[in-house]
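Mods, move this if it's the wrong board.
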Amino acid sequence: MSSVEWVTTSVPYLTARQPGKSDAWSAETAARGRRGSQRIVQAGEISAPDGIAEVLGLEQGAVVVGRRRIMYLDNQPCELTDTYYPLSIARGTRLAGTAKIPGGAITLLAELGHVAVRACEDVSARLPSEEEAEALDTDVTQPVLQLVRVSLDAGDRPVQADRMVMPAPLQQLRYDIRIG
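Not the wrong board. Structure tokens:
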């Protein structure tokens, strides 16, 4: 693998897909002649981890719906993605289950009437935990990028929070910002 294995932008992952279209990850990788897949390792109601309750505007320890996924590029783990939703949005929906959601979670959120119009992302670098290193098939001495994103609706209410962990040497994040 090269030092920059994958260059990505966030916008396709924040937009609902048209009916019958695959999720953004599968579509992006296929467009580049690669294979993107994911495995949902757990989903359901959990206590919000540190930092997540805050970005969702909830009290510390509040119960949320969480989904943990391992993303694969050409059958190699490349990202751990934990996604969290307020109970008022996700309880009793497919977001609380382990089945893959046609078109992705953003599409389902839109169908449920929760359309994000703004997203805030914070990116940091750190060393992975032993669990993260094992899931990513890397070493605990190799840095990872952590991206925490909160998606907000037109009323500035959080509808989703994501925490993504990626091996730093294999990633490049691109931000194309329109000003004015």
